[in-house]
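Section 3.1: Structural characterization of target chains.
Under the original work plan, the team committed to producing a structural model for every single-chain target entering the pipeline before any wet-lab resources were allocated. The record below documents one such target. The sequence was received from the expression subgroup and is listed exactly as submitted; it comprises 887 residues.
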Amino acid sequence: MTIPTATYRIQFRNGMTFDRAVELVPYLKRLGISHLYASPIFTAAPDSTHGYDVADANEIDPELGGREGFDRLSAALKETGLGLILDIVPNHMAAGLENRWWRSIIEWGRDSRFARFFDVNWTKRLTLPFLGDHFDTVLAQGDLTLVLDREAGCLALAYFDSHYPLSPSTYPQALEGIALPVADEIRALAAKADPQREEDFHQAMRALAKSAEADRLDAALAEQAKDQRRLQALHEAQPYRLISWRDAPRDLSYRRFFEITGLAGLRVEDEAVFAESHRLILDLVKEGKVDGLRIDHVDGLSDPGAYLDRLRLEVGPDCYLTVEKILAHGEHLPSSWPISGTTGYEFIAALSDVMLAPEAVETFNRQYADVTGKPVDFEAELRAAKGLMADVNFEGEGRRLLDLASEIAGDDADAQTLSEDDLRQALRELLIAFPVYRTYGNEIGLDLADRQRLTDVMETVAQGPHPPKPEALTFLGRILVGDVRQGADATARMFRTRFQQLTGPLMAKSIEDTLFYRLNPLLALNEVGSEPHGRPFGLDAFHAEMQARQESQPTGLSATSTHDTKRGEDARARLYALSEAPDLWQAALEDWRRMNAKAVVSLNDGPAPEPAVEWLIYQALIGVWPEDLGPDDTEGLKALEERFLPYLEKSLREAKLRTSWNDQNQGYEKAVTAYAQHLFSPEAADFRRDFVSRMETVFLAGAVNGLTQTLIKLTAPGVPDIYQGSEGLDLSLVDPDNRRMPDFARLTAGLDKEADTSDPALWLDGRLKQQVVGKILPLRRDHPELFLTGDYVPLPVSGRAANHVVAFGRRFQDQRIVVIAPRLMVSAIRDAKALPKASFWAGTTVSLTEVFGGGTYRDLLTDQQIDAGAELALETLEAPVSVLIKG
């Protein structure tokens, strides 16, 4: 297998096409990556900004340049010696009319050739939750009508621009009373319609739609639609049911991706579905145009292990495979999976052990409690968030599990006395208490490790604040391990699969998309894959994690930014720096709230923004403030405001406290938005001058953090992944802000300049960071064994500045590198507002031990030659950050 030495993630769409990517290939080559890592490139839903809403898995999106454009990119990469990793989406597809597979099951129901492609509960009609109101209301308002869809070749129920095809079996009902020859021809055609030859049917319908009587038929159908009873009866006769989007959480007949009703789950566990949905993907791999695959949301699949085994069999041993998977603290990938590792969220979490001030969590929690008037109780808040998700957002999924459990209980002698409420409470508590994304049971049941995890969770539930009836909890445990009567095996397997596919979305939506917008003492820790509670932070934990990473997934990706992170890596690095200065933060927050108090609005349900949201606003502003933005730069302030306000709106709605996506409180949102707008207005000029002045130290210390985390990513175990533009300064907010097109012209020009490590401006604007990336990646490319298989060795640091340094070595045979980087630098630069002088490091040494001591090293970043003994004095280094090479 060819393992990448470094990847570069590019987000296609939003202006990025294959030909635009071709123009970037020389830059990427010079930067030193080995593989371009592409977001999904297959035809997606109209106006898609990300490509995860695939509409045709076997067509490369024409909007990106189609197959010809892709081939040009492939040729350009091969010509320069670069590989290609492709992001694929096996879990779901767009649930839209543009998806011909989905459209087919709308039209033909269970008789469709594609009925088994999607994870649909066919015991009921297919629900389509795309109405703006309840069906009866939409019908009464006259928003539903009958049309002849000439382009699609069918009769359809029209709801504004969406045309939902009628089942051909109901055409006589739709055409009842219409005495036109073309109507007779359509009736005759529908009578012999065959779902196995649906395209022939549509082609014939399109031909009839061109007849001279088509306009008269349109008028007759419109007249028919005025009879609401008739239209309602016609709707009832369809294999689908149009419902309000608000009813989706409790009344959906298909598995969706998280809460997104526009993304329907695929059944890739079915061999025919796997083959058809992967046909083009596998062709591209076998043709040598794709060297690796990133599997999106692998935990959403019915049986991830079986899927990965099948995929590995199809792509062969040389294809690089990684999975998007959130690992809880201490959790490891199943060792049987034939992959290289994850996409690296756990690496982001590990970096907090380097960047975070040791006492920061406790201190900021205390300050947050003082400001908000409520103690910080992460566990209680998490339980509340998961309860909300289970009761409301995933009500339908929970109802399906309850129905399955009740069905099994009905014929189980030990469970027949259990009521539905007994089972509901036990199921709810089990879902809330689940500490990881999922277990990986298959048709047989759970393996020993997952059985033990389930046992531990059940004990937690039994001893928790709301213990369910013990018999009910035990019964659910029996279902999950497969201990049921023989006739209930199939139902138990379905329960186990549905349960495992629900715990992941429930965890993600509860923590990442609810709790991390509700509870914000330290925004730097509110990141995908992070667990900002219940453990100490420190270098020992980081070194232990890196040594474990070298053992478990040395070829997995190491990320610092992705298209899904809550903020850019350098914004996070700044907020880590803020963790070192609780007194500075507390005083600043008090003054800023006072300076802008007149912008707070009193509403019936409290102030807007409330103190917790003010806290959020100011920390987020610290992270995103451009390094070159002056407090009176009108144009720059407007540009930042246009990015910041959508972030704030998203934050309020994701928190689901006083407003939400499903129940928007417009008055509250308007008041909070107006507060933020005030911060960018001429009236708040004094605030902005104070903001910039106070935060200068944090900005510079954050820039140091940004370089340090990049240096670690480039040299620690794992394959460094560079998200587009983050080789320079990445102060982005959550999506869609972090999916903007980077300034590639500026980045390309930046590689031509040498950066002076003594110049703070070059740290602040990301030029030094880019230079470091450009120097280390070629080293990885030239010495792959050193980085992929070389030992990771923590190096002890002693002396007065020991707490401000992280140091480690990598060794393979006679090759050695020593990495030394600064950390926790606020106190070192607070007074001077400049990088610390060499005297700061006086008396501080790195122990090289026998393994790394002796001989001459070269500093890759400065070309300084260093004779290394058993110890290395830091004041002898020309720069406060060093990568020393020997061999």
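Residues 685-715 form the longest helix (31 residues).
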